[in-house]
Amino acid sequence: MLRSCVRQARASCRSLLSIAAFAMIAFVAAPPADAQAPTNIRVSWVAVPNNLPPFMFKKAGISKHNGKSYTMDPVQYRGTPESIIALATGELDIALLSYSSFPLAIQNANLQDLRLIADEFQDGAEGYYSAQFMVMKDGPIKQVEDLKGKIVAVNVKFGATYGAVRSILAKNGLKEGDYTVLEVAFPNMRAVLTERKVDLVSVGTPQFFWDPVMQNAARTLFTQRDAFGKTDVVIWVARAGFLEKNRSAMTDFMEDMLRDRRFLFDPANHAEAVKIVSDFTKIPTAALDSWLFTTRDFYRDPNARPDIAALQLNIDQLYQEGSIKRPLDVKSYVDLSLLEEAIKRLN
Predict the structure, then answer these.
(1) Residues 90, 65: one domain?
(2) Listed range (31-45, 197-211, 272-286) with the worst mean pLDDT
(3) Average pLDDT, integer, range 147-169
(4) Which of 64, 91, 128, 274 is the most interior residue, by most CB within 10 Å?
(5) Residues 93 and 105 in one domain
(6) Could you read off the pLDDT of 66-108 as tens digits, one per residue?
(7) How many CB atoms within 10 Å of residue 347?
(8) In the structure, what pLDDT confidence band is assigned to residue 35 with cuts at 50, 70 and 90?
(9) DSSP 113
């Protein structure tokens, strides 16, 4: 009996030692209580190479903080209005919105906490590309008034190109109903025009305008600049709560984003930048080299600073034309503090 009790005591002791040892290993292996996993930042995009997020950080060494304080998840949408819903439901953290969808997010979706945090690209800057609205060279459309009763193609209603079409046609006495609007993805614009399925297409991406087949078959009827002057076409926005909660990670992300923009836009890196885009899009480098990140492309501020004055004028015009319900004071929805902090780090 005594020996049995001793054996049981030894077994219990060994079990306690094992549990203590396991607990010690777990304690040593566990991360500190204040350590956090990288913040995942979900960023929307619509078309490449107009939108940079899907091929950002392809250059090794550009993103110093990626995988440490944050990770980035690019999410594609057919048009900028679709990302408004994703922002409202918490399925998206940063949305690339157009000058026309930005006020809709605030006024229609009631996202009063929306904040403009950076710029993506601008249309019609002096000496740079402006989106083209094209018709067949041998077709019946000679002037804007000829579009009465015709079909016009935009990539998505209430997006940037839709705003320009609506504006120019209204200035020429045509309201929606006098013409039909058809939604067509940018890569399909040439086909629907040359196959005579529509009468006017929105060439919102330079690659499709500079395409030799398009150049031979079609001509420009008007441009985005004709409709709005200089347009801050696409901006970056996020909700104030997300920015406040993730300020440190977001500043790191903005720093890496700026470093990437400066690399891509530097003429000394042109060949490498073109290859990065070509590898991602599968577009041959020869089809990109002559225009991408040059003056034949949209203007992109190297520091991603938006043109607030231009954006205000764009939105004022939307209100005057009846496209939005109320005036909007853009400055009330701007927070460039993270961007400015990131700029300071790099300068």
Answers:
(1) yes
(2) 31-45
(3) 92
(4) 274
(5) yes
(6) 999 999 999 999 888 889 999 999 999 999 999 999 999 999 9
(7) 7
(8) low
(9) T
Sign of CA dihedral 73, 78, 80, 83: negative
Kindly report the three-state secondary structure assignment for every residue of 271-288: HHHHHHHHHHHCCCHHHC
- First-residue to last-residue Cα distance in the chain: 81
**Other beta carbons less than 10 A from residue 241's beta carbon:** 11
What whole-number distance in Å separates Cα of residue 294 and Cα of residue 97? 23
Q: Measure the CA–CA gap between 122 and 236, rounded to whole angstroms.
A: 12
Three-class secondary structure of residue 30 per DSSP? coil
Sign of CA dihedral 58, 302, 314, 253: positive
Q: Which residue has the higher pLDDT, 186 or 273?
A: 273
**Domain encompassing residue 277:** 39-124+231-282+299-346
The three-point CA angle 247-249-250 to 5° equals 60
- What six digits make up the tokens of 157? 């209603």
Peptide bond into 81 cis (omega under 30): no
Quote the CA–CA distance of 162 and 202 in Å, as a whole number.
Answer: 8
For 126, the enclosing helix (H) or strand (E) is none
Residue 287 inside a domain? The answer is no
Chain CA centroid to CA 200, Å = 25
Assign 3-state DSSP to the chain and report helix, strand, coil percentages, each to 5: 45, 20, 35
Task: Please list the residues that pair with 166 across neighbouring strands.
Answer: none
Q: How far apart are CA 301 and CA 116, in angstroms?
A: 15
Strands (E), 54-161: 70-76, 94-98, 114-123, 132-136, 151-154
For the chain, helix (H) and strand (E) counts, in that order, are: 13, 10
Nearby residues of 244 by Cβ (< 8 Å), 6 or more positions away: none
Q: CA 340 to CA 303: how far, in whole Å?
A: 9
Report which of 159, 68, 110, 128 is spatially closest to residue 265, judged by C-alpha positions. 128
Q: What are phi and psi of 234, to 5 degrees?
A: -130, 130
Q: Are 68 and 203 contained in the same domain? A: no
